[in-house]
Every structure is written in C-alpha cells, then in structure tokens.
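Page 37, top half.
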Amino acid sequence: LNDGEALLGFSSGLCSGRCFLYWLIFLSCLGGLLFGYDTGVISGASLLLKERFRLGAVELEAVVSSTILFAALGSLASGPINMRLGRRPTILLGSATFTLGALLMAASASFGTLVFGRVIVGVAVGLSSGTVPMFIAEVAPTAMRGKLVALNNVCIVSGQVLAGLVDGSFALVPAGWRYMLGLAAVPAVVQLVGMAFMPESPRWLLEQGRRGEARAAMLRSRERTPTCEAEVESEIAEMAAAVTLQREAEA
C-alpha cells in the first residue's frame, strides 16, 4: 500500500476484501450517476437557460443535444483508449472531463461557453458508459458479477432522479441553473480522487502480460478465506485462457 491508500483506510485492518470491493464498485458507479445526472439535469435547467441567454429553438436544441452527440463519439473513442491506457486511467480521464465540463457550464457567461461545457460533459458520458460496466465486470468475483454490473444501471437512473430533485430545489434560486449544472463536479471530484488509489483491471493487466500484478489486484478485492488464493488462481487462469483465445481470434 502507498501512503495515499493508507490515509484512505485501505489497510488490511480497516478496509480489505469485501469492504475494498464495495468501495471500488461505489467509486466506479459514480460514473453511472454522473451519466444520468448530466443527461437529466438539462430538462430543468433549460427553462432558466432559455431566459438567461435569450435562446431560440435552435440554440436550445444545440445545448440539449450536444451532450448526446458527443457522448456517442466519446463511447466510440473509449474502446481504443481502454485498450491502450487501461480501464482505470480511462475512468480517471472521464472524471476529470466531467469536472471540467461541470465547472465550465456553471461559470458560463456566453452561449458558446455553455455549449462547449455540454460538449465536454458529453465526451465524459461516452467514456464512462463505455468503461465503467467493463471495469466492474473485470474486478467483480464471478458469483457477484451480474448484480454488481447492474448497479451501474441503477446509478444511471438514480442520477436522473437526483437531477430532477436538484432542478426543483434551485428552480426559484437566482442563477439557479449554475448550481444545477455545476453540482455534477462534486461526485466527479470524489471519483477522481478515489480512483487514483484503486488498482487496474486484472483482465487488462493480463493482456499486458503482467500476471503478478493482475493476481495482486484481484486478491485486494477478495475476502481472506482459506481458499481465497486458490480461487484467485483459478480466476486468473480462466482470464488468461480467454485473453489467449481473443488474441488467436484477432490474429
């Protein structure tokens, strides 16, 4: 463990095994929460934005749809980025992009800046949607994989619900749209800081030929039982066989 991990409580006595796994999944699923929030919050904020920036129908459509368009482009880009850099760096890139986009939108003084912020958030949504489910599937124990991956979908819907609550809370506040759009930076920063201390996906590490690191990463998120190491070795062997088959199919 490095000093940062120790400060966050990821020592064997404070947070290990199942506790560490749940913390890792929570941080990952913040990407789903941000996905839902940033695509849902504009429904309430658009009413205030239309008045503040004197937006016509076309301009308002640009504000709303730019995030969706660039989310599609971001999801296409997430594949090559994941393959080259790894899952964790891609999630970190998404977190940083979410933060930048939220702060830009909250500080917008012009229509152009607002749309640019929405574009950046769209890229972040695409990176997140293409990475988080895959990362969760690759770090989760086999017996828990389905329900843990499904949590990301729950978080997307939860983000949309949260967006509606925030919109309602700030609808009558002066410049309330700034709070609506800017509050997305809070979970984004939490994810950015937290994921900086998380391990990489064992599957990606195996693809890079780093079997020892893959085994160590998997052990950190498994309960310490008498059969733990044997189970991890079995999972690593299955993953390695899948990686080999994938390479043969691509050859």
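Page 37, bottom half:
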Amino acid sequence: MRKILVPIKRVIDYAQKIRVDPSKGAQGVQLKNVKMSMNPFCEIAVEEAIQLKEQNKGAEVVAISVGPKQCTETIRTALAMGADRGIHIETKPDVRGDYIDLQPWAIASLLKGIVEKEDAVDLVLLGKQSIDSDCGQTGPLLAGLLNAPQATFAANIERGDDGSFTVERETDTGTETIKLNASGKPAVITCDLRLNTPRYPTMPNIMKAKKKPVETISLEDMVKELGLDLDEVLTPKNEVVEVYEPPPRKEGETVGSIDELLGKLKEKGLVA
C-alpha cells in the first residue's frame, strides 16, 4: 500500500450541550465559545488508517480537512495519532460546514480534486457520518465522482495481496462481507463504530505532530485550481429552513406496584 487519505471534520465536541438560538433560524446552532473536536467517526477512520499503515510498512497517511483556520488543530490531532502530513482547505470564518453552507456534494467535489492531485492513492477512509449533520453522504458521493469501488459502514477491513479490500459492513439485519477488487482507482470506505477504538495521542507524539507538514490552501484557490465555480460550491443543494431544540422530556412518575403501573398506562391509552 502506498497512500491512504483520511478526510476529517471539526465539529462540536460530542460531550457538549448544544445551544440553539431560535431567533437565528437556520444559523441557530451556536458555535462561539464551544469546545470543538474531531468528529468521532473520523477518529475511527484515522485509527484504521494508522493500523493499516503499521501492517504495510512504507504507506503514507494524509489527513485532510475543509474548514476555518482552527481546523489545523484537528489535523494536528490526526498527526499526533500517527498520520504523516496534513492538507487544510481553509475557508473564511463565516462559512459554516455544519450543512448550512458547505454540504456533502461540495466537500466530495473538493476531495475528488485532492485525490486526483495526489499520486498513488490506494484508499480513502472516511467516517460514516458527522455528528453535526448526520448526512452520511460524502463517502458515497466521492466514490461516485471518482467512479471508484466503495463500501460503507465498515466494521472490519482487510487488505489482500492483490490490492483488493475485504470489508465486513454493518446492515440493519447484521453484517455482510463484500470485496472491493483492485480497479486502478482508490477504494472508498466509510467507517462505523465497531471498527476499532481510537488511540489517545501521547505527549511525545503531540510534540512531534507540531513539526509534521500541513499544507494550507484557500478554498478560493482550490476551487480555481479544480475548475469549479465558487458560488456553486458554497450554494447548498438543500436548504435548512429551521433549527430548534427537542422539547424537554417530562418528569417520570414512581409507582408502587405492577397494578398501579398498568393503571397509569391505561389512563394514558398506552395499553388496552
């Protein structure tokens, strides 16, 4: 294996309470003064790339992120985990990546350009979805744009000597195993929760990550280089009309017996 690309996304940390300002409509989710971190499914993709690199000496892992200046910190996290270098497509601060401005088609189009720009890419590993928009579309869209073999929701990945990948993938009824034959195009695989447990970066690796190269290119320059239209990239294919918090859950009631429980359920029409 020669090169693995891992697109990663900066999102609100999974442990944070999301704050929503209904008066701001589609821009309601508040991003200021909120802890941000790497999307958890992207962490799984980075870990899998590093494990494949450890099994195939000489392979290079490249972490890619599209977003504001702070995405460099997210890339550094991937470098501290074991990635070799990073590519940052930097957007202006007012461009939102949580499905408001940049949506999966735009991201996949940019990633296609990077895949074609890089030499000898054998594999693109992505998280199955991001926890902010939950689209799960970027990987399949990228595979479609590249006309490349793909597998989604991967629970196990094995690479064959012939360059193929055997993927056990999650389904609604269990798992299924498929083989991505070597095709001259990079395989595109999205990673599910059971694939692995991401490692914690050690302090020595965090320090080493500061010296690893990160190439930064502005979104405007990248779009121009790829021959895309900036307005088309930044114009959402779907419009977010409203963002609101779920209604608060009602407090539960304590009952003293099964008969009382059944009585309460009958009162609410939940049982006959």
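Margin note: The mean pLDDT is 92.
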